[in-house]
Design a protein that fits this description.
Length: 184
Amino acid sequence: MSPTKFDPQKHHRRSIRLKGYDYSAGGAYFVTLVTFRRECLFGEVVKGEMRVNRVGEIVQKWWDEIPIHFSNVETWVFVVMPNHIHGIIVIAERRGTVPVPNDNQNNSGGGTPPLRAPTLGQIVAYFKYQSTKDMNALGNGTIAKYWQRNYYEHIIRSEREMENIWKYIEMNPSRWDEDEENPE
């Protein structure tokens, strides 16, 4: 079988992010990451409860580590499912930036540029990278792909929306039989 020729009409990558939105802006974000080929790698749901395996424990560990690496980020409700995760990431308003001295100050070292707040994409990329690195360390030296290339995100804009998403995440294991990510 010959490889498919690149066709820019079929094979273009479109961003699924909200055009013009600043994803480093303070706010709450609902994220979903799905495993590569939707493989059930993280454990299983038994009688409505998720039972994570060693790989699922690694995913949980790196979710919990996000706020340690990004000081202005909190992780809220989170669930590991057999082939995907759901969670809420909260980026705090930008704090701790270093002011840039003006030209009139005598500062032979130059100014320190303001610290850039991480974007949601950088946070998710960090999580994927770290968890993949640890999951691959469990293997026999082969490198495996664990995550799909992209992720789903939704900007949470109200308390009611937050409550609904929170409940959805918490209830996800008990609804696994009806979940569209469930391959069975």
